[in-house]
Amino acid sequence: MNRNVFRVLASTFLIAFLHNPALAEAETGGQHMDIQEQGHAMATAFLEPLPQPFDKTPEDYGMTYRDVEFATRDGLTLRGWLVEESADKVVVMTHFGYRANRFGYQLKHQPEGSMPYDKEIEFAKVAKRLVDAGYGVLMYDLRNHGESDKTELGVGTGGHGERFDVIGAVEFLASDAATSGKPIGLLSYCYGANTSFFAMEEDQDVFRDNGVKAMVALQPLSNGDYLKSLGVSEEVYQAAERSYQERSGGYPLRANIEDAAKSTIVPTRLVQARKDPNTNLAFVGELYENMPVEKEMYWLEEPTHRFDGYNWFADNPRDMLDWFDAHMKD
Questions:
Q1: Of the CATH numbers 3.40.50.170, 3.40.50.1820, 3.30.1490.100, 3.40.250.10, which one belongs to the domain with range 53-222+254-327?
Q2: What would you measure as the largest C-alpha separation in the chain, in angstroms?
């Protein structure tokens, strides 16, 4: 089967579980899947980012920006936008994975029949909130997403390999003439939050030495918890686990983000939609307890869809801004 066709089928199959877990035993897209094929399809949906262009830039939202690129320690080149570089402080925005890039989540680029959410997510709207409050913003594509380089395997790893992307972003800001010496904040969404926790576990010094002052981490989540929330059988889960590990270089579906959180070194506001059906709130609580820093748990009480949380700060920026304002003073 053509790889792109299989990617769409895998995404369609996974989204079908959101509505009817019994489809694990049914035909999807005209293809009957046995347990191994189901597991492989689910692993594919998590592993392979959807290629998505973007037809807007920060300029379309009234912001000045510069195209930038920077290297990671493991030899990739990442690409992004440095928005309002003259600001006195700057926030690194790390997007969620697989269905997004630095621009956001665009309905027109989601395969037909496999859209888990029916609204646009435009991270530039969040960036505009930050810019209006006096911040610059580095918006960049994670590896294997958007315009950034692909790894040899070409797959996402739930934040493990991507830890070098956040480290590279911080090192870039610390060395660029426009931003060197300025306080840095981290705004990390979901997969990007995983990545930020793993990055601090990898190298605390890069954050300590380069002026990273605070983090807002929104809805960290392991692929394993997401998959279990869909009600798959243990057999299907184990088949997905085998396929995922084989193709990701050995990383598990159930990333141990809560242990990585023990290495957090900056004041962190953890944000989570309480009614999010796709996470394990016990995991969120353990992660929060493990952070050995000044911290605050901020529950979103209104959203009932996980993706609503990704849109939250575009319309409700005050709690994000208050945290950064309190901790990113010169």
A1: 3.40.50.1820
A2: 60
